[in-house]
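Incident log, structure service

09:12 report received: a user says their structure output differs between two submissions of the same chain.
09:20 pulled the input from the user's history:
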Amino acid sequence: MSLDWCPGIREACAHWRDAPMLQQTFEALERTLDQDNDACIDCSKTVVEVVCQTIVTSFHSQQNPLRPLQETPTLSDWLSAAIKALKLGDVRDDKFKKLVSSHHKLADALNDLRNKAGPASHGKDPYLERLALHHQRSAVLAADAIVAFLHKAYLDAQLDPASSREPWERFEAENAQIDAQIGLEVDLADDEPPTLRFLLPGGDELPIKIEVSRLLYLLDRGAYVEALNAARGHPVPMEEQNEEQGGA
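09:34 re-ran on a clean worker, output below:
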């Protein structure tokens, strides 16, 4: 087998490419698929669980707690939390509720198969026969169906920009509104960092004081390195040297 059997998992993992543990699990799944190894069952279950945790983390807050309260949450617990985070259980349509319920049943079946036959999570009888290929396929297809369902719902969900880990591009509509309505001025002072003054509708202002080095480091590492190279060889002002020595 190959990743062609799980396009939903492949797409979700490409979307969350900055999640190290998810990527590591995805790589393990790819290796076990290439090797026709029964451990692909363990990896399939783990991918589902990590995707659920990724979604829950995106919406969890003190005001809206979503993480399972169990000391060791099960796959079903994480799936329930992800469905709650995406508000998929709020849809009143009975057919859609049955669809959501079917994904719960898939997750339970996948978890049971992993517990019974997955070689990577629990020690098994060393002389136990390997599973047939269709068992592996069933696990991978079940995991892919769950991940694809959750990921598509996540892409349609309204995220909170205050806590989201999504990139700037994810908030296209919000970005356009800010760019159209908010102005920007820069106040420079010799003895302090520049102040970015954002001009809000109605005459209010939102001032943010930030060092040039910090701004470059956060926004463009290439520009930061270029600026650093250009600055090297030029003397640091005496006042800044004194401040650095005094703070050491």
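09:41 both user submissions now match this output. Likely a transient worker issue. Closing.
09:42 reviewer note: The mean pLDDT is 86. Residues 242 and 248 are 10 Å apart (CA to CA).
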